[in-house]
Amino acid sequence: MKYVDSKKMREIDSYCINQLGISGIILMENAAIKIFNEVDEKLKKMSNSNIVIISGVGNNGGDGLALSRHLHLHNYNVEVFIVGNLNKASNDFKENFQIIKNINKLDDNKIGLNFINENADLKQLQTLNYADVIIDGMFGTGLKRKITGVYESLILEVNKSAAYTIAIDIPSGINSDNGDVMGVAIKADETITLQLPKVGFLKEDISEFCGNIKVVDIGIPKKVIEML
Asked: Where do the YjeF N-terminal domain residues begin and end (predicted)?
C-alpha cells in the first residue's frame, strides 16, 4: 500500500478539486459517511452511546462537523466542542458549520454546540466524563508546530478520559510526515485515516497514539493516486 506525506496528500486533493471538479465539500462528505459507518459499527456494540466530537476549525474539524450531522440523523446523542478562531475557519468547515446551525434551528438544538477559545475554562469539558466515545478532529495532516495553550490542555483532558477515542485521519499532535509527537498528542484507540495511510504511521511504536489504523476510501480515483 502507498504511504503519503502531507505534501503528496495535498497534491492529490488539489488535483481532484481543480482538475476533476470533485469539490472539497464532496470529499469531506464522503469522508464523513465512511467515518460514520465505522463509528456506527463500534457504537452498536456498546451499551451507551454518548458521543463527544472535538473539532478544530480546519478541514479535519469540518470532517467532525459533517460526522456529527450523520450521527444526529441516526439518533445518536452528540456534543460538539469547537476549538479555535471561527474567523480563521476553512471554507468547507464554515459550510458544514452553517448546516449544523440550520439543523439546530429546525430540530431544537439537538446537536450540542460548544465553543472553546484560548481563555476557556476547561471545566466546561466535564462532559468528557460522561462520554462513551470521543472523536478527535482537532488537527489533520498539516500540523507542523508544537501543541501549546488550550490545545495542549484539551489533549491532556481527552487522554485522561476512559472513553473510547477515535482520531479522524491522524491523532491530533502527531506529525503525519515522520510520526513525531509535537509536544503532546491524542492517544487514540482507533484512527480512521482517509484514502491513504500516512508516512508517520511507519514510525516504531506509533500504535501508542494511533491504536488500530483503518483506511477508508473517500472517492479519490485510483488513477490520480497512481499518477501523482
From this structure: 9-226
Is 62 annotated among the ligand-binding residues?
Answer: yes
200 is in an annotated binding site: no
Render pLDDT for 95-124 as a digit per residue (tens, 0 to 9): 999 999 999 999 888 999 999 977 766 777
Taking Cα atoms as reference points, which of 85, 87, 91, 78 lies closest to residue 28? 91
Asked if residue 164 belongs to a known ligand binding site, the reply is no
Q: Band of the pLDDT at 226, cuts 50, 70, 90? A: very high
Q: Which domains does the chain have, with CATH numbers?
A: 6-227 (3.40.50.10260)
| 61 among annotated binding-site residues | yes
User: Would you say 191 is a known binding-site residue?
Assistant: no
Instruction: Please tell me whether 30 is known to bind a ligand.
Output: no
